[in-house]
Design goal:
Number of helices: 8
Helix content: 55-70%
Strand content: under 5%
Shape: globular
Structural class: mainly alpha
Largest sheet: 3 strands, antiparallel
Amino acid sequence: MALASIAAIGAIPFDVHAALAATGQQEERIGRCIKSAAGGSRWLERTLWGLRDQEGGQIGTVSKNRDGSEDLGPMQINSWWLTPIARAIQRDRDQVRTWLINDACFNVQAARWIFVEGLRTSKNYWVAVGVYHSPKAHRQQSYAALVAEKLSHRFGTRIFSQK
């Protein structure tokens, strides 16, 4: 039986409009979290949007990686970060994992922390963007290029011009 036939008889109770509205509401929520995490810093807010656009996770998302790790929540934070985040906030790893998956603002704040820590240690914006993705230099460079594309797409190419 064709998918359209099954949907027509009601075997698939799926409302496309409701799903789209829920996605839009989730994106608005994530956007508010990004704005809050940036604390009024325009460049940081834009950076978080670049990471968000590249990662594209949603609240509740757990993505399995080939290496056995997982990417968690809206900013798809790798499970490798569970221990460092748990130590930093003095919480249990399982609790941190649950928050990363289900709490958009906690997830975005953790993304901010990862990026800012990378920036603090490397003193290089693009290295910090890459560190967000991977500890391996060759993966950092390709990831940073992808984020640069996302930033350019969202904010225009002038985002990289100096004033």
